[in-house]
Design goal:
Blueprint lengths: L15 E2 L13 E3 L2 E8 L6 H8 L8 E7 L3 H9 L5 E5 H9 L4 E9 L9 E5 L15 E4 L5 H12 L8 E4 L5 H6 L5 E5 L2 H7 L3 E4 L1 H5 L4 E8 H6 L1 H20 L1 H8 L7 H4 L13 H13 L9 H4 L2
Parallel strand pairs: 3-4, 3-5, 8-9, 8-10
Antiparallel strand pairs: 1-4, 2-3, 5-12, 6-12, 7-10, 7-11
Helix pairs in contact: 1-9, 1-10
Length: 321
């Protein structure tokens, strides 16, 4: 897997195609042949999307006449324009990116649950870590420090800011920098950053390097937080309701299967990330519930609004399924 550059979220589309199904050609719309519809899906190379790969492997999509063509991006903020432009039919994005898009009048609609926090501090798939031997033991001590997040002004920054607040610190004094998840371990190890907010498998990689976890920001936002969902454009949903329904059903089956087969989740992650076996054994898996937790999304919305991420509040009734 190519190292994905931080410029992605700023709008530069350096997208690497993953080995998950055929590329489906360069057409910007879903193609159909022999009863099979190929749909392009924009995703992030993290543990969160393992159910999609498992679902494809187990035939949950093919039995519904769908063939997936996946493309990897750095974060949900980079995937949203890909979906609205028709480059992808579906995308995987964190809730903050989707709420920002909706509040800005971007025609997106969440259609299926994506991933949720475990809700257990210190045992979540997302964590805030510092280098081995660091004197930082609390999120409050991040004032004046350099903290890496995969996308600025997005869900992980909001989550870290909430951890800092809860620890009694001032989040406005934290120096946030943007860095791809897979670049965080080396940057932390070299002391280029003071802390990193990472999700698996980058989190396990840093812990194996001796990094210490000082907070579980996604848990600090809300218990059992719905972190991300699969989405499409409102126009695609209106024009292709049958395809959307099939995708929803296949994703639901995939989420349920992933939750029940953790060993298979760990194995499938090796097919789209370069994660060593010793790291995968230490990975904390997220939860993949069938339904989104609306109250947790409402809490995230309030925090995002507090952080100034919205010009106008998003309409969750329009956004959520």
């Amino acid at each position: 897997m190519r190292r994905l550059l931080a410029g992605l979220a700023a709008g530069t589309f350096l997208l690497a195609t993953a080995a998950c199904g055929s590329s489906g050609g360069s057409s910007s719309t879903s193609s159909s042949s022999g009863g099979t519809t190929t749909v392009k899906v924009g995703i992030i190379p993290i543990v969160d999307v393992a159910p999609l790969y498992l679902g494809q492997k187990e035939g949950f999509f093919s039995k519904r006449g769908l063939k997936l063509s996946t493309t990897l991006a750095q974060g949900g903020a980079a995937i949203v324009p890909g979906v609205t432009s028709g480059q992808f039919q579906f995308g995987f994005s964190n809730m903050t990116s989707l709420m920002i898009a909706q509040s800005n009048g971007v025609p997106v609609r969440a259609i299926a649950n994506g991933v949720a926090s475990t809700g257990v501090a210190g045992q979540d798939f997302g964590g805030l870590v510092v280098k081995k031997g660091s004197s930082i033991t609390s999120a409050k001590q991040l004032e004046g420090k350099k903290v890496a997040v995969n996308t600025l002004k997005n869900i992980n920054e909001t989550a870290v800011r909430e951890s800092v607040r809860k620890a009694g610190g001032d989040p406005d004094k934290v120096n946030f920098v943007e860095l791809a998840f897979d670049q965080m371990p080396a940057a932390l190890d070299k002391g280029q950053i003071d802390a990193a907010m990472a999700v698996e498998p980058a989190l396990a990689t840093m812990k194996l390097q001796g990094a210490g976890e000082i907070a579980s920001p996604l848990v600090d936002v809300a218990r059992n937080l719905t972190v991300a969902m699969y989405f499409t454009s409102t126009s695609y949903a209106q024009k292709n309701p049958a395809v959307v329904k099939k995708f929803q059903e296949a994703v639901a089956e995939s989420l349920s299967y992933a939750d029940a087969h953790p060993d298979e989740v760990r194995q499938i992650v090796t097919t789209y990330t370069k994660t060593p076996a010793d790291v995968l054994a230490k990975v904390t898996l997220p939860k993949w519930p069938a339904e989104a937790n609306r109250s947790s999304i409402e809490t995230l919305e309030k925090l995002s609004e507090q952080d100034g991420l919205f010009k106008t509040a998003p309409d969750l009734d329009e956004l959520l399924p």
